Amino acid sequence: MGIDFDLLNRSADITRLAGVPAANDKLMTRSKNGREQHSACPFCGTGTDRFWINIDEQPQTWYCRQCKKGGDAMQFIAEREHLDRHNDAIQIADILARELNITSCEHAAAVPVIKPERTKTITDNNPPSIEWQAAARKFIGRCQQLLAGSPGYEYMRSRGFDLATLERFNIGYNPSWYKLRIGSENLNIAPGITIPTFTNNNLVRVKIRIYELDNKGPKYMSIKGSINHTLYNEIDAREKELLIICEGEFDLMSIKQAAGEDIGAVTFGSAGMTPDVTTPDMFKYFYLPDKIIISFDNDEAGEAGALKLLEEIQSKINTPAEIKRLPAQYHDWNDALKKHADIRRLLFDMFGTKETAVHQHGG
Prior knowledge:
By secondary structure, the protein is α+β, with helices and mostly antiparallel strands. Helices cover 32% and strands 20% of the residues. It contains 13 helices and 17 strands.
């Protein structure tokens, strides 16, 4: 028998745990996730509406815009009782069960929500079909063979990348419009740099960086059938204790080229691309690291995207996370690479960690 943490969370009314008065229309708003009840924060005590509870979600979640704390019912008890969500999970569950008047929080089919072992395999959510992956793999393999000595290679070199980095991330070059046949469908693929994304050895996305622009079309396109709400370089989220979430693939490649394996890096591919609300288990990746830094581009879109992602993470898990911006002279991490910034030092400063400590403790 085990503790059914999911049952406890789904049974909890956080408004009652927090002592929030009955629903008040003046302090009620609606979002894409349903109704949000607002009140003063029981932890920092500020304001009258900075603490909100998603009362229509199952399980309910909470978040304070002032003290930046948030999570589910278990996390609420952990904060209130000054306990650690992972190490004190049994004690937290017992307290929550008593407050819910549940005589036993044991359940035969229980699946405890406890921090998984690092390097644990995380199952994909509906990866593309085997047929799609086979055709897309053939295409990106062709593009990888065409990269060396091509205009695409020179373009990537101009952005600061060395051959080892390009090979590591399976970067390729598509020199002209290409007709890719998948099943009964013919897909027209634009010329440009090919950027594949793999998850658990599945090819889940192929993005094209269209670098010969007329300033009218988009910079990027994905091959039809790609899964866009996915993590690029997701293996780092499973293996690294320190994790940075950056804005785009070239930012991530810049970080990994300069910083090596001491710090993990992942990206959703753009400032506006965050985990799909229909696949909330995307956040399972962020239970694994010990600390998360979000560092997007130095512009309005980057700032807005970072804030949105931080709120999403803090409302669902309790892994320490915060936003850190690059120095003003760098627009993004690739710009820092091109300008020969000391990216390793920037990263260690952001995490408040010395290089020697990372080498001794790192994953």
